[in-house]
TrEMBL record:
Keyword Amino-acid biosynthesis: no
Entries under Pfam families matching the protein: ADH_N, ADH_zinc_N
GO cellular component: cytosol
Molecular functions (GO terms): mRNA 3'-UTR AU-rich region binding; NADPH binding; quinone reductase (NADPH) activity; zinc ion binding
Protein name per UniProt: NADPH:quinone reductase
C-alpha cells in the first residue's frame, strides 16, 4: 500500500498525518510515479499553516524525484522507466508520498549524473536560484548582492552560482557555525543578524554605496533593513516571508530611499514556458553535474517523520537542503 502525508486542518507540524493511500491508473496527460526522494521546502510550511490557502484535506509537498511506472493517454514528454524530477505549485501538490499520480507536464528528465536524492534536494531550490541570478537582474562581474538565509538550501546554491558570475556576496546568518558554511560556499562576507546591524554592516563593506540587489526570504523582520542596504536604484527581491508577511507600506518609501525597485517573484512564472524551464534546468544540471555547484543534503528524514522535519525547518535547525528518503524505493 502506498503511503502519503496528508492534513485536514491548518496549523503547526502536528496536523500532518502519515496515511495509507490508493493510487490508481493515470488518466489522460498523467503519469504514475514511484518516488525515491522528496524535497522539503520552507514553502511547504505555508500550505500547512494556511499562508497559502488550499482546499482541505490535502496532500503536502511540491517537489520529488522518481521513476515513471505508467503513462496515460497523450503523454509524450516522458516514457515508462524514465528517471524524472519535478517542482511546481498547485499542479504538483502532494509530493510527500511513496507513489502518486501527477500531470506529466511538470516532469523534467534527469541526466544520468544527477541522483534522485540530489534532484529532490535541488530542483525547486536550484531553479529558484537559476531564475534569481539569470532572469531577475542583468548582473555584471563586480556587482554585489545581499543574501538573507545564506546557509539555507537556496542560499548555498545562490552563493556558489553568484561566485561563478563574479559577484560579491554578502550573506546573513544566525550563528558562527552557519557563517562558516556560508563562506565555504561562496559568501565573501557574512553578517550575523543576531548581534549586528545588517544595513550598517553592508554600508561599511560596500564603502557606503550599498548592494545592487537584495534577495530577502525572511520578510517582515528584515524588510526595512534590506531596503536600507541597497544602493541608489537597487533592486529588492522578496522571495519569501519566513518571519511573517511584509506590512503594507506607501510606495513613496522606495523613492525616498533612492528610487528603489521591488519585485515579489514566483518560481511558477519563470518555469511556465517549457523552453525557458528547459534552459534553466539545463544550466543548473550542467553546473551540478560538473561539480561547479555542489548540493549539500544535510538532513534526511523518513516520510513518516514529517512532523519532526517541519519542526526542525521552522526552528532554524537545518542548513543546506533537506529531503525525505523513501524506504525501500
Amino acid at each position: 500500500m502506498a503511503k502519503a502525508i496528508r492534513f485536514y486542518e491548518t496549523g503547526g507540524p502536528q496536523v500532518l498525518r502519515y496515511e495509507d493511500v490508493t493510487v490508481g491508473e493515470p488518466g489522460p496527460g498523467e503519469v504514475r510515479l514511484r518516488q525515491v526522494a522528496v524535497g522539503l521546502n520552507y514553502a511547504d510550511t505555508y500550505f500547512r499553516n494556511g499562508t497559502y490557502p488550499i482546499p482541505l484535506p490535502s496532500g503536502m509537498g511540491v517537489e520529488a524525484a522518481g521513476v515513471v511506472e505508467a503513462i496515460g493517454a497523450g503523454v509524450t514528454n516522458v516514457a515508462v522507466g524514465d528517471r524524472v524530477t519535478y517542482t511546481g505549485f498547485l499542479n504538483t501538490l502532494g509530493a510527500y508520498a511513496t507513489e502518486r499520480l501527477i500531470p506529466a507536464a511538470p516532469l523534467i528528465k534527469l541526466p544520468d549524473d544527477i541522483t534522485f536524492e540530489t534532484a529532490a534536494a535541488m530542483t525547486m531550490r536550484g531553479l529558484t536560484s537559476a531564475y534569481l541570478l539569470r532572469r531577475i537582474y542583468n548582473f555584471r562581474p563586480g556587482d554585489s548582492i545581499l543574501l538573507h538565509a545564506a546557509a539555507g538550501g537556496v542560499g548555498l546554491i545562490v552563493a556558489q552560482w553568484a561566485r561563478l558570475l563574479g559577484l560579491t556576496v554578502i550573506g546573513t546568518v544566525s550563528s558562527e557555525a552557519k557563517a562558516e558554511v556560508a563562506r565555504a560556499h561562496g559568501c565573501d562576507y557574512t553578517i550575523n543578524y543576531s548581534h549586528e546591524d545588517v544595513a550598517q554592516r553592508v554600508r561599511t563593506l560596500t564603502e557606503g554605496a550599498g548592494v545592487n540587489v537584495v534577495f530577502d526570504s525572511v520578510g517582515k523582520n528584515t524588510f526595512m533593513g534590506s531596503l536600507d542596504s541597497l544602493r541608489r536604484r537597487g533592486l529588492m527581491v522578496c522571495v519569501g516571508t519566513a518571519s511573517g508577511p511584509i506590512p503594507p507600506f506607501d510606495p513613496v518609501l522606495l523613492a525616498m530611499k533612492g528610487s528603489l525597485h521591488l519585485t515579489r517573484p514566483a518560481l511558477a512564472d519563470y518555469i511556465a514556458d517549457p523552453a525557458e524551464k528547459a534552459a534553466l534546468a539545463a544550466e543548473l544540471f550542467d553546473h551540478v553535474g560538473s561539480g561547479r555547484i555542489r548540493i549539500d543534503i544535510n538532513q534526511k528524514y523518513a516520510l513518516q517523520d514529517a512532523v519532526k522535519a517541519h519542526s526542525d525547518l521552522e526552528s532554524r535547525k537545518t542548513t543546506g537542503s533537506s529531503i525525505f528518503v523513501i524506504q525501500g524505493a
